[in-house]
Amino acid sequence: MSRIFAYLRVSTTDQTTENQLREIEAAGYNVAPQRAIAETISGSVAACERPAFSKLVDRLEEGDVLLVTKLDRLGRNAMDVRSTVERLDRSGVRVHCLALGGVDLNSAAGRMTMQVIAAVAEFERDLLIERTQSGLRRVKEQGKTLGRPGKLSDAQRKEIISKRGQGISLGLLAKAYGVSRSAIQRAEKIA
What we know:
By secondary structure, the protein is α/β, with parallel strands linked by helices. About 50% of the residues lie in helices and about 10% in strands. It has 2 domains: about 5-120, Rossmann fold; about 155-190. Helix 3 (about 80-90) packs antiparallel against helix 4 and helix 6 crosses helix 7.
């Protein structure tokens, strides 16, 4: 008899996998608690490099079923998702995605659907990156400063450069100005 496992992933610690588990239960699957593997890690990290997922793969046996609520739980890169599903298929593990109607991703229809959806998701991510980079370039061209404001004023930076010229150490200056040593080094570079 097939064992059913669930892989639940969130990207940040302020998120929870509870909704994913509820979706799986609502779809009629009964996953034993020890077979519901939850992980907090970015989807941009390759599946094989995720600690909990790697341990899960070691536990899976031929005939087992791995459930995910959405493809992006496996990864955000179409190539990574595909290679993960293929790797599991070679081990005789079926992967089902609830967002795709519970389709077996190892079937012909599942593979085709997965590839199309993963490619579209990757395309959308690439468009978002392009738009963000374009916006950053535009802001820079307008002469606006990006990032958070520095902790040191222009006058303080000039003082630091002068004092560094006198041989005063980074550590003493950092302590005197209430900043890190790297902030002192940045002040020297800006000058």
